[in-house]
Design brief:
By secondary structure, this protein is an all-alpha fold. It contains twelve helices and no strands.
Length: 335
């Protein structure tokens, strides 16, 4: 009955790729923390980008602050309920639960990591803020974007990935513009969301695979996000290169400005790259074909087992004594 309920995949390549991607995302998150937070060079670059944001100033700070304040515990819970509701409306409650986990899990993990596990060694004296890795807001935005890609029908995944990517990139950049977080905080949070999204999708693809009705590869959406990622990372590289060699080192306002721009551009490129990777890994996989079909398959399997058992018992009862290997006692002689 268990294989009928879970419908283990005949082709495990999709879930295997997703689970491997989740592990690699975890490794990338750890590397981001170690290289940018736990090394002197990384802290100088990260702080230079942060001070560049502080010195840049913006007339939109009030507007950005008001928008970011809307991303709180209440809005996150509503988003998780919405993801579950989409799954229910599609007749896929397990997929809805998975979407809710992807939306809320990265935020909970980011909060635990930031306040209870990770620290920021004082390699750089005079840093304005302490440990801010990873960003709760960026984790919430990226998690919600990836959860949406997971729960919508396969034919809508390309549009969901683009819209969700724009939203996640905007929030991940805004927390840097407003001076709440460093670039590493946003990048690490988005990587953490990818760990949850690819991991949950991998588990669903392994245990609750659906059947895709039509092959859809979303090449247009993949092309848009790949181009955006390449352009953004290239611009970030150019901005970083322009700041290298300027007098004053990372304490120079000019160097800090270039570092600030590079941090924003690389963050946007990473978000686009992660959404494109998730879309490519999912492809046309229609996860969780619903409990009705699963239970119907299990019921059919149980009924088939009962029929076979009844036929076996009926066949055994119809056999004669010699056929079933039993010997009857000889009749008693008449006295």
């Amino acid at each position: 009955m268990l294989p009928a309920v879970l419908r283990l995949p005949s082709n495990p390549q999709v879930p295997a790729r997703l689970l491997v991607a989740s592990v690699l995302g975890g490794v990338a998150t750890a590397l981001c923390y170690v290289l940018l937070v736990h090394t002197a060079v990384g802290q100088r670059l990260d702080d230079a980008a942060y001070y560049g944001a502080v010195h840049a100033g913006s007339q939109h700070f009030g507007f950005i602050d008001a928008q970011l304040e809307r991303i709180d515990e209440r809005s996150l819970k509503l988003t998780m309920v919405a993801m579950f509701a989409i799954g229910l409306l599609r007749g896929r409650p397990i997929l809805g639960i998975g979407g809710a986990v992807v939306a809320g899990g990265p935020v909970a993990a980011a909060h635990i990591l930031r306040y209870h596990i990770l620290d920021r060694a004082p390699f750089v004296v005079g840093s304005a803020i302490g440990n801010t890795f990873p960003s709760d807001h960026a984790a919430a935005a990226a998690g919600c974007a990836m959860a949406l890609v997971l729960v919508v029908p396969p034919w809508l995944r390309g549009v969901a990935a683009i819209l969700g990517g724009v939203f996640a990139a905007a929030i991940a950049a805004q927390v840097q513009v407003i001076g709440w977080h460093r670039a590493s905080d946003s990048i690490g949070a988005c990587l953490l969301a990818f760990v949850f999204a690819s991991g949950v999708a991998g588990v669903l693809a392994w245990t609750r695979p659906g059947r895709a009705r039509k092959k859809r590869r979303h090449w247009a959406a993949l092309g848009i996000m790949a181009a955006a990622s390449i352009v953004a990372i290239a611009l970030g590289t150019v901005s970083a290169a322009n700041g290298i060699g300027l007098p004053g080192g990372t304490a120079s306002p000019a160097v800090q400005h270039h570092a600030y721009l590079a941090g924003l551009e690389v963050t946007i490129g990473v978000v686009a790259l992660l959404l494109a990777a998730l879309l490519l890994l999912l492809g046309d996989a229609d996860l969780d074909d619903g409990w009705r079909k699963a239970m119907a398959a299990a019921r059919d399997l149980l009924q088939q087992s009962r029929r076979e058992a009844s036929r076996s018992s009926a066949g055994g009862a119809a056999l004669g004594p010699k056929e079933i290997g039993c010997a009857l006692p000889e009749p008693a002689a008449n006295q």
